[in-house]
Design brief:
The complex is a heterodimer of chains A (about 270) and B (about 280). Chain A is mainly alpha-helical. Chain A contains 11 helices and no strands. In chain B, about 75% of the residues lie in helices and about 0% in strands. The chains are: A mainly alpha (about 270), B mainly alpha (about 280).
Chain lengths: ~270, ~280
């Protein structure tokens, strides 16, 4: 399980879990679960297009994820936000389906794009993923205060002169970058689980943002590591374990919040 | 006419089945979709499509008709989402997201088992992106029956549903059993999603549910009219089937473009056009 051919898988999965944990915290805080689900699906079209024209999949993923983010942000500006997200999502998926048809890809290629193929990560993919991860972390650090403020009270942040539309857009683009690097690892459909389950669980345990982010990264790491180990042992797809682990961590958080404890002060969440 | 409709379109039996199934699912999705959009439940609707992905692939694994899996697991998923709190506005997205994530994980496993145990090639593509031309004629009565049942449910619920959609407080004051109405509506939504999964594939079925409805809600403020206009979806389905049939002759290699792509693209265009047509929001 820890042989040299698995080193890449462990490294990439660790990077992905850290990013998903950090970015996911803001996804949950901002209630951006739907865009977080839609952008990866948009990125899927990019990876499929890269298959057809033979350019670097990561470039395709990045460009399409950013396009999807900008599309969702712009369409959502006028009109219902969730409707815009839903339609942008299915449109990109349909485009991806056409590209896959053109490239005469086999079933496994479709499957691994959607559900992930962590064991097939090559060393040449490591560097770009690490680079994108650093960009994401830097962006979150820079945006930390305005993001937090506009997530918690949008009125106050408007009063402070923050443009909520710009912050929204900036956040969607960070989300897109985080997505692009994650798709090859856990697949377009499952990044979402990783971005929602662990942070939601973390928020059940603490209401302090800093602690919650660290906790969320920890849970994401535990989710991914155990998923790789289980998938290696059972030969079942990693996506299944990521999905189930993430749902389990959320359930644990829910039970924890419901548990009656003496002297506990509950904060509104 | 030959330029528009390629020879053999009307006489092909798989086209006839496709038109029937597409039309029926578009009508049901349109009617249910208007309420979905008005209630702000697009995400829940989309989550149901992922739940039915798992259902459809499970049905393939067990060797039963995909429609049973699509609709069956969809209804169960609707129940689970209600149980863990999709009704409350706060935390609703989260609960939806968790169900969604878990069911995609399940779908990943079942599709994997499909491809290893039964040597069915193309299961992933068939379930996720649809294969309307391969539906058997015997499925049509099932589709129509399920569609009629879902429509009957919405018609039966019409007034309490409308009231709880536009004015939850007023509905509560009038003694409308909101939870019951919500659950029954989610069940109707599961059926609509299941039918359109059959038409354009499980993960694309959101397009038929949300697209035409969102366009029509933008164009008119009267609920009756928006229900009528949402039948735009039927046009999208039929034109999509026609274009996909024709696309076989477009390229020298005879590689048909999937029906789902045309339907989704048309729906998307309708939505964009409705924004221009309405001029306001």
């Amino acid at each position: 399980m820890f042989s040299s051919c698995m080193t890449n898988a462990w490294t990439v999965a660790t990077i992905v879990a850290v990013i998903a944990g950090v970015v996911g915290f803001f996804v949950v805080l901002r209630g951006a679960a739907f865009p977080a689900h839609a952008i990866p699906n948009g990125a899927f079209a990019g990876a499929a297009a890269a298959n057809v024209w033979g350019f670097n999949p990561l470039a395709g993923l990045t460009v399409c994820a950013v396009l999807a983010a900008v599309g969702i942000g712009t369409l959502g500006r006028r009109g219902r936000h969730d409707v815009a997200t839903a339609l942008a999502l299915v449109m990109m998926l349909a485009v991806g389906a056409v590209f896959l048809g053109l490239s005469q890809e086999y079933e496994p290629a479709v499957y691994s794009l959607l559900f992930g193929e962590v064991l097939g990560v090559s060393s040449s993919q490591l560097l770009p993923v690490a680079g994108l991860a650093l960009i994401c972390l830097a962006a979150v650090t820079v945006l930390y205060r305005p993001l937090l403020l506009s997530s918690v009270t949008s009125e106050m942040s408007e009063a402070r002169g923050l443009r909520s539309y710009r912050i929204d857009m900036a956040f969607l683009i960070v989300l897109a970058l985080a997505t692009a690097m994650t798709v090859p690892v856990v697949g377009a459909l499952l990044i979402f689980s990783l971005m929602i389950g662990p942070p939601a669980a973390a928020r059940a345990f603490t209401s302090r943002p800093g602690v919650a982010i660290i906790l969320s990264v920890t849970i994401a790491l535990a989710t991914v590591w155990s998923a790789i180990a289980l998938s290696y042992l059972s030969n079942w797809p990693i996506g299944f374990f990521v999905g189930v682990n993430s749902a389990l961590s959320y359930a644990t958080g829910r039970i924890w919040t419901r548990w009656p404890r003496a002297g506990r002060i509950s904060f509104p969440r | 006419m030959r330029w528009v409709i390629e020879p053999g379109f009307w006489s092909s039996s798989s086209v006839q089945v496709a038109l029937a199934v597409g039309g029926a699912s578009a009508v049901v999705s349109a009617v249910v979709g208007v309420f979905t959009v008005l209630r702000g439940q697009s995400f829940a609707g989309h989550a149901l499509t992922d739940v039915s992905t798992a259902g459809g692939s499970g049905a393939l694994l067990l060797g039963v008709s995909p429609i049973i899996g699509f609709v069956g697991l969809g209804i169960i998923g609707a129940g689970v989402m209600d149980a863990i709190g999709v009704r409350r506005l706060r935390g609703r997205d989260l609960a939806t997201g968790i169900v969604l994530g878990a069911s995609i994980g399940l779908a990943a496993l079942i599709l994997y088992l499909d491809s290893t145990s039964r040597a069915t090639t193309g299961a992933t593509q068939q379930i996720l992106f649809g294969s309307i031309f391969t539906i058997q004629a015997s499925t049509v009565p099932v589709v129509v029956a399920l569609g009629v049942a879902a429509l009957a449910l919405v018609v039966g619920l019409y007034r309490p549903l409308l009231l709880s959609t536009v004015g939850p407080e007023m509905a509560a004051a009038r003694g409308v059993p909101e939870r019951l109405v919500g659950v029954l509506f989610m069940a109707a939504m599961a059926v609509a999603v299941g039918l359109s999964s059959l038409t354009i594939g499980a993960i694309l079925s959101t397009a038929l549910l949300i697209g035409p409805a969102a366009a029509s809600v933008r164009l008119t403020r009267r609920i009756g009219w928006s229900l009528v206009l949402a039948v735009l979806g039927v046009a999208a389905c039929w034109i999509g089937v026609l274009l996909a049939y024709d696309s076989y002759y477009w390229t020298p290699g005879h590689r048909a473009v999937p029906v789902s792509f045309f339907i989704v693209a048309l729906v998307f265009c309708f939505y964009l056009a409705s924004g221009l047509g309405a001029g306001r929001d």
